[in-house]
Automatic annotation (TrEMBL):
Domain Aconitase/3-isopropylmalate dehydratase large subunit alpha/beta/alpha: 85-359, 362-500
GO MF annotation list: 3-isopropylmalate dehydratase activity; 4 iron, 4 sulfur cluster binding; metal ion binding
Signal peptide as annotated in the record: none
InterPro entries according to UniProt: Acnase/IPM_dHydase_lsu_aba_1/3 (IPR015931), Acoase/IPM_deHydtase_lsu_aba (IPR001030), Aconitase_4Fe-4S_dom (IPR036008), Homoacnase/IPMdehydase_lsu (IPR006251), IPM_dehydratase_rel_enz (IPR050067), IPMI_cat (IPR033941)
GO biological process terms, semicolon-separated: amino acid biosynthetic process; oxoacid metabolic process
Keyword Hydrolase: no
Keyword terms, alphabetized: 4Fe-4S, Iron, Iron-sulfur, Lyase, Metal-binding
Gene3D superfamilies: Aconitase, domain 3
Protein name: Aconitase/3-isopropylmalate dehydratase large subunit alpha/beta/alpha domain-containing protein
PANTHER family with a match to the protein in the record: HOMOACONITASE, MITOCHONDRIAL (PTHR43822:SF2), HOMOACONITASE, MITOCHONDRIAL-RELATED (PTHR43822)
SUPFAM superfamilies: Aconitase iron-sulfur domain
Length: 510
């Protein structure tokens, strides 16, 4: 490991408080970079203005007196108020409540205790129950949790229950999906302008669809099960403007690691993080999901990205329900605005044991690793595996450390075996992974992202050093409390697998 706590080039970004133009909280050595960004301010404000048809929606938010951010507008609409400001407490109508096998049983218990043993949920079609965390294990308590979900869904006639009964072969369970945040998107439950709550901190992932999405506790979920409402405090919004062409060696994971490194793991506590700019607009939906997935690692209440043609195209055929996109007003007020010139960013990692322990991948070359893990809601989507395959393909080499692949969902797993990797002459990801010597893609689930029972596939049962595409690197997160996790993009993870040390993907992609 490099002796210094290397941080990315300060010229890659600067921060400015909206009310104090030109103030830079982080030193910048490049006046050129600042001038360039300053010029973009007015240009970018124009780019996030609401499209004509959605800029004002009196029917849903009343007459707008003061500009509101997307988050404020969505909560105003959901609480049937014409105007909201940060700090307001409002009863919000929930569009979707998601729970899973870890928190579902507790939420159900609270619902039954508070509403009665024979109570009915508020809306059987707005509750989505997804077993995904501790699935492929012989742990009886974990298996029992899924049974509790199944009994409840049968009793309540829940419409969206993605069940798994045969643990010996996930493909024998056509309803089974896998990791909840990816499944929610793939099954059309993420829709612009709506409120999606889930008993999981990474529920914020769905903000990629221009909706308000956040994690809640079991008690709140029990209340939502009974009423369809929740009291929420409106968060102030931090605005992140990312401009510039994305270099071919970067992925959204690098962008969010840059941001968290910049503002720290507490930098967005109970704040909305709104992502805009030409770089964000160029990202596909799965990359946008990566960006929003990790806002909670900065303490964010929610992350949000304006819906656009990329969003609408992704949603085609996934939902038949009407939705109404919401956009920030040009006069909206932000707590702070951060601007980044992404073309100058370099591949990053977050070193143990915090997602804000940012370092340049190229400065961690002396970190010898034992394994690589590609999976989770952050880094186990189809695009993540396509990115990893691209690196293996470019190198033509074999991995030097065990490389574990855990597709987030059954759909992702299928993609690995069917989608041709661009530039490969028709090879699939699975063929490329096999040629590179990776482990066979595992059954879709949360896997070892959060450790899980001892028999969980790829769990760190010993103090290993791992480069991982997941989102948290706290002690014990993937199993052993002395394990060391370097969070990285799928490019960096694949490059590191090929060398056996933390590796900048430019070693193979240029
Ligand atoms: S993949 Fe990891 S971060 Fe995502 S929901 Fe599962 S345990 Fe949580």
């Amino acid at each position: 490991m490099a002796s210094s706590l290397a941080s990315p080039s300060p010229t890659s970004s600067f921060i400015r408080n909206k009310k104090d133009l030109g103030f830079s909280a982080f030193p910048s050595t490049s006046q050129i970079a600042i001038q360039k960004c300053k010029k973009q301010v007015s240009k970018k404000i124009v780019s996030v203005m609401a499209p004509q048809q959605s800029e004002r929606k009196p029917a849903t938010t009343g007459s707008v007196k003061t500009g509101m951010t997307m988050t404020e507008k969505i909560l105003a609409k959901a609480s049937e108020k014409p105007q909201l400001s940060p700090g307001d407490n409002v009863w919000v109508n929930v569009d979707i409540l998601m729970t899973h096998d870890v928190c579902g049983p507790g939420s159900i218990g609270i619902f039954k205790k508070e509403f009665g043993q024979n109570a009915k949920v508020w809306n059987r079609e707005k509750i989505v129950i997804i077993p995904d965390h501790y699935i492929f294990t012989s742990d009886e308590r974990a298996n029992r949790n899924v049974d509790i979900l199944r009994d409840f869904c049968t009793e309540q006639n829940i419409k969206y229950f993605y069940d798994i009964k045969d643990l010996s072969n996930f493909k024998a369970n056509p309803d089974y999906k896998g990791v909840c945040h990816v499944a929610l998107a793939q099954e059309g439950h993420c829709r612009p302008g709506e409120v999606l709550l889930g008993t999981d901190s990474h529920t914020c992932t769905a903000g990629a669809f221009g909706q308000f999405a956040t994690g809640i506790g079991n008690t709140d979920a029990g209340f939502v099960l009974g009423t369809g409402k929740l009291l929420l405090k409106v968060p102030p919004t931090l605005r992140f403007v990312m401009d510039g062409e994305m270099p071919p060696y970067l992925l959204a994971k690098d962008l969010i690691l840059q941001i968290i490194g910049e503002i720290s793991v507490a930098g967005a506590t109970y704040k909305a993080m709104e992502f805009v700019g030409t770089t964000v607009e160029s990202l596909n939906m799965e990359e946008r999901m990566t960006l929003c997935n990790m806002v909670v690692e900065a303490g964010g209440k929610n992350g949000v990205i304006p819906a656009d043609s990329t969003t609408f195209k992704y949603l085609e055929g996934k939902t038949s329900l009407p939705y109404e996109p919401v956009y920030s007003d040009a006069q909206a007020s932000y707590l702070s605005e951060y601007r980044f010139d992404i073309s100058k960013l370099e591949p990053l990692v977050a070193k143990p044991h915090s997602p804000d322990n940012r370092a340049l991948a190229r400065e961690c070359k002396d970190v010898k690793i034992d394994r690589v893990y590609i999976g989770s809601c952050t880094g186990g989507k189809t695009e993540d595996f396509l990115a990893a395959a691209k690196v293996f393909l470019a190198s033509g080499k074999k991995v030097k450390v065990p490389t574990f692949l855990v597709p987030a969902t059954q759909k992702v797993w299928l993609d690995l075996y069917t989608l041709p990797v661009p530039g490969s002459g028709g090879k699939t990801c699975s063929q490329i992974f096999e040629e590179a010597g990776c482990d066979t893609p595992a059954s879709p689930s949360c896997g070892a992202c959060l450790g899980g029972p001892k028999d969980t596939y790829a769990r760190m049962n010993e103090p290993k050093v791992c480069v991982s595409t997941t989102n948290r690197n706290f002690p014990g997160r993937m199993g052993h409390k002395e394990g060391q996790i370097y969070l990285a993009s799928p490019y960096t993870a694949a490059a590191s697998a090929l060398t056996g040390y933390v590796t900048d993907p430019r070693e193979f992609l240029q």
